[in-house]
Write a structure and sequence with these properties.
By secondary structure, the protein is of the alpha/beta class. It is 37% helix and 14% strand.
């Protein structure tokens, strides 16, 4: 059984992922952005899940969150599920936080980053991006292109880690809306599979997945020059370079 940390576990796909993996017998660490939000996962904690708290829009709280996870012991996998669709928190939550947690959490065997089909509309340019979120300099699509490139870059620079990006589809969560057309179960199946399965396909790296099938990402996601510019920009902003 695996020890898995899941960001953004208080609702939506993150909570569904935590519920399923906990039911399958895995050891789960759930995450909420505040102590008040922990009430949403009290049932999971009651079933044995550990819990950590931190607002991913705040780099200092993200650093503290990484410390909390490390203090609980090394994890086998991290599922970077948390995300926001709009507003100034898009860059801090959707890309800075996954990058910083990747840099600071003791290196697991597997990393799964939640992307989106909308990443195909992202701009492959980090120049002028305000990673702090004080200015709205990037879109949701931009952030998902960045996180997809991060997943592929980590697969390249850390060959001992299985690192992948997942498009969960347009599913009926609070973010997706009640009328979203994709299957909610399929929306979290792939990340669970990549985080815990011993099937040969799941023990791969550098992929962009949709419903357990490989898809072709935006060309920039596999461009090493773009990856390096992204890692350099994030490393300078956070003062936490990936090594």
């Amino acid at each position: 059984m695996a020890r898995v940390f899941i960001t953004g576990s208080a609702d939506g796909l993150g909570r569904a992922t935590a519920q399923t993996l906990l039911g399958d017998g895995h050891e789960i660490i759930v995450h909420a952005r505040s102590a008040e939000r922990l009430t949403a996962v009290n049932d999971l904690i009651g079933r044995g899940a550990s819990a950590v708290v931190g607002d991913l829009a705040d780099p200092d709280q993200t650093r503290a969150l990484a410390d909390q996870v490390n203090q609980l012991g090394r994890v086998d996998a991290v599922i970077h599920n948390a995300g926001v669709y709009s507003g100034r928190q898009v860059m801090p939550v959707n890309i800075v936080a996954p990058y910083l947690l990747t840099a600071l959490i003791d290196r697991p065997h597997r990393l799964v980053y939640l992307s989106s089909g909308m990443h195909h509309g992202g701009r492959a340019d980090v120049a002028g991006v305000d990673w702090s979120g004080r200015r709205g300099t990037g879109s949701y699509s931009d952030s998902k292109l960045f996180v997809t490139a991060l997943a592929v870059a980590v697969a390249r620079i850390w060959p001992d880690v299985y690192s992948n990006a997942v498009d969960p589809g347009w599913v009926p969560t609070r973010m997706g809306g009640a009328g979203a057309p994709d299957d909610l179960r399929l929306g979290h199946l792939t990340q669970e599979w990549l985080a815990t399965s011993d099937e040969p396909e799941a023990r791969s790296s550098g992929g962009y997945w949709y419903h357990q099938r490989l898809r072709t990402p935006h060309p920039a996601a596999r461009n090493t020059n773009f990856q390096d510019s992204l890692l350099d920009a994030l490393g300078r902003f956070t003062a936490a370079p990936l090594t």
